[in-house]
Amino acid sequence: MANTNGGPAYDRILLKLSGEAFGGSESSVDAITTAWMAEQIADVARAGVSIAVVVGGGNIWRGKAHEAGGMDRATADYMGMLATVINALALQDALERIGIASRVQTAIQMQQIAEPYIRRRAMRHLEKGRVVIFGAGTGNPYFTTDTTAALRAVEIGAQAILKATKVDGIYNADPKKDRTATRFERLDYLEVLQLGLEVMDNTALTLCMDNDLPIIVFNMNVAGNIRRVVFGETIGTIVSPRVRAEAGLENVAP
């Protein structure tokens, strides 16, 4: 971690954006929304923090609906990977229009529009202050973009995964449906698994647990929240190793 005396708490982060974050009421990739997200990322990049981004594709393609209609799962997943590349290119364009150098790397080679994912090249881009956007998932069907985020974060040496959502953290129930839902401030990985909380899929969560990689779940729709998390403010929910005993939560019911 970096010097927290007024500076960033992290030197390098991986930001996980869902496909829905790009969507608008009239477009699957909304230009205004994408430009707004780029501004939030740029604010942190200008502070000297290395930023990698993994994007989803749910605003363009929902494979599960097509699987229900008989489509082969692998085919549906590959189509979803292509959707993530569209979002990655949209974010790259928005960043570069405000002066932030960026590179898109894809797990499926498409040399005319993006670099292939090469770990050492991604590391070099980050060292030079470029935002690196990872598209096409892991390049393999049956793996989610959550798993991609965990895998890439470990590979590039990120100090935390920032998972952007529409709510301000992890709750014990859906806060939109249950007014009594309570937000957790801190959890450990095993608690998330045992309670069946929808944070990331189990493969991604296990990979983070095995590598002691914290996950911070926060509300992306509030301006400045990425910066607040990076600069060490306590917002959202943090999932990290062995926090129950440290936080004095041994006897607190979830």
Write a structural description:
There is one protein chain. This protein has 254 residues and is of the alpha/beta class. The protein has one domain: Acetylglutamate kinase-like (Carbamate kinase, 3-Layer(aba) Sandwich), CATH 3.40.1160. The chain has 9 helices and 11 strands. The chain has helices spanning 31-45, 63-68, 73-96, 119-127, 145-156, 189-195, 202-210, 225-230, 243-246, and strands at 12-17, 50-55, 102-106, 115-116, 131-135, 161-165, 170-171, 183-184, 186-187, 215-219, 237-239. The strands form 2 sheets. The protein has a 9-stranded mixed beta sheet with strand order 4-3-5-2-1-6-10-11-9, with helices on both faces. Strand 1 (12-17), helix 1 and strand 2 (50-55) form a beta-alpha-beta unit. Mean pLDDT is 91; it is low at 247-254.
Descriptive keywords:
disordered C terminus, nine-stranded mixed β-sheet, Carbamate kinase, alpha/beta, 9 helices, 11 strands, 254 residues
Q: Which second-level CATH architecture applies? A: 3-Layer(aba) Sandwich
Q: What would you call the quaternary organization?
A: single chain
Number of helices: 9
Shape call: globular
End-to-end distance: 29 Å
Sequence stretches where pLDDT stays below 50 over 5 or more residues: 247-254
In helices, the fraction of residues equals 25-40%
Q: What's the CATH first level?
A: Alpha Beta
- The amount of beta strand, in percent, is 15-25%
How would the blueprint of this fold be written?
Elements: E1 12-17, H1 31-45, E2 50-55, H2 63-68, H3 73-96, E3 102-106, E4 115-116, H4 119-127, E5 131-135, H5 145-156, E6 161-165, E7 170-171, E8 183-184, E9 186-187, H6 189-195, H7 202-210, E10 215-219, H8 225-230, E11 237-239, H9 243-246
Parallel strand pairs: 1-2, 1-6, 2-5, 3-4, 3-5, 6-10, 9-11
Antiparallel strand pairs: 7-8, 10-11
